[in-house]
Amino acid sequence: MAISDVEKLARLFLDGNHAEAMRFIKQQPNQSRMVLFRDLFTPAMYFIGELWENNEISVADEHLATGVCDFVLSRLFRVSEEKMSGNNKAMFMCLQGEQHYLGIKMIKSLFEERDWETKYYGASLPLEYALKSALQWKPEVIGLSVSIVYNLPVLKNYVRTLATLPHKPVILIGGRLAKKYDLEPYSNNQGIIINNLEQAEKWLDEYVEKRINA
């Protein structure tokens, strides 16, 4: 029985096969970031997560797969210096204690595709450093990722604190919990919940259009 493209990619990640994973992605007929993220990268990593939850793979296997996926994402969508000099700025991070960073890295890439200047802080960034960086750099948008239930009070603190910044950035909230839980109580009515990549892309396009019209 033939396996799906999603499972093929997941197996390449689990095998630690950087070159074949890259080749497989480049052979896809549609090279749109949104299509690749939505139809291959995200479901492949969810597939791997399910294998781990069912004890079919180890933590080491999951970490290896994440590393290969991260490598492919970084190599596939490199940002030129010309595209790092736009007027719009956005910074992205995972809350302290959060290690699942691939989703927010994909959203960062969607912003870069539209010529936003971005800063990406990866996993587990303490609030004090996030606040200091935002004060200095003054991004229009701050993206937060939360995947662990016991970090919901932490999310509330991040949103409340970052919302006090003088330049009033838009705060986007996403991650695995965005699909499973109502995060509105933790947003303090000061953050925008992003449930998936499609919603992130839609919000971004609408935001840019409003700025142009303004």
TrEMBL record:
Residues 87-214 form the B12-binding domain. InterPro entries: Cbl-bd_cap, Cobalamin-bd, Cobalamin-bd_sf, Meth_synthase_dom. It comes from the Bacteria. One of its GO terms (molecular function) is cobalamin binding. This is Cobalamin-binding protein.
